[in-house]
Design goal:
The protein is α/β, with parallel strands linked by helices and 211 residues long. The chain contains 8 helices and 5 strands, in the order H-E-E-H-E-H-H-E-E-H-H-H-H. The longest helix is centred in the last third of the chain and has 24 residues.
């Protein structure tokens, strides 16, 4: 079965309306028990093509790592923002995800004229936006943002594993896999675990790691 490949059709339509810089935005880590939520914003150079850009979830870890530097080199600008577990617990994961995406867009220089967002509308942006359901499969800019966000977060979780290897963050990246739940049952929550993510069925349900 062929892998779905994102296209620039939507970005090109927006550019023909007169918007020079069109950003794609996506986030990763919403469903994790530990670690931050990470968002990336990307403005790709219109004339530069990077083969293989697709929704980060359909790519292997090696493919995402391979694409990271070519995507960065193909950008007019890019930025990553994250909110840690304590902030997620304070304001809830949905608001934290929106805040991270807002921060990533605001960090772009130059600021984009138009923003394409995977799934949600970002409150209080100063420029027009369009939320696209399944945007990481449909828009190259959003797919590129999903890859940068995912690689950034995975690298951070590997670093956190080096500081505290009890939980196996290098393997599951903070998602609720069986070995992660077993480690939480044995050691309790660490400083990077989200205290608000404690449903009664936590240890009865195992969520597979997001690819």
């Amino acid at each position: 079965m062929s892998r779905p490949r994102a296209s620039r059709t939507i970005e090109n339509v927006i550019r023909r309306l007169g918007f020079v810089h069109v950003a794609g935005v996506d986030e990763v880590g919403r469903g994790c028990l530990a670690g931050p939520v990470v968002a990336a914003a990307v403005v790709l150079q219109p004339g530069t093509y990077v083969a293989g850009i697709a929704d980060s979830k359909v790519l292997s870890p090696d493919e995402r790592e391979r694409l990271f530097d070519p995507i960065v080199k193909a950008c007019v600008s890019w930025a990553v923002a994250m909110l840690d577990a304590a902030e997620i617990d304070r304001i809830n994961i949905h608001r934290a995800s929106l805040s991270a995406m807002h921060q990533a867009v605001s960090a772009l220089a130059p600021l984009p004229g138009f923003v394409l967002v995977d799934g949600f509308r970002i409150p209080d942006l100063t420029m027009p936006q369009r939320n696209i359901i399944g945007g990481d499969r449909r828009s190259t800019a959003i797919a590129a943002a999903s890859i940068l966000a995912k690689v950034t977060r995975d690298r951070l979780m590997v670093d956190l594993h080096g500081r505290d290897p009890r939980y196996g963050f290098d393997r599951h990246k903070g998602y609720a896999t069986r070995d992660h739940l077993d480690a939480v049952a044995k050691f309790g929550y660490s400083d990077v675990h989200r205290r608000s993510f404690r449903p009664p069925s936590l240890f009865d349900t195992v969520h597979t790691e997001e690819s």
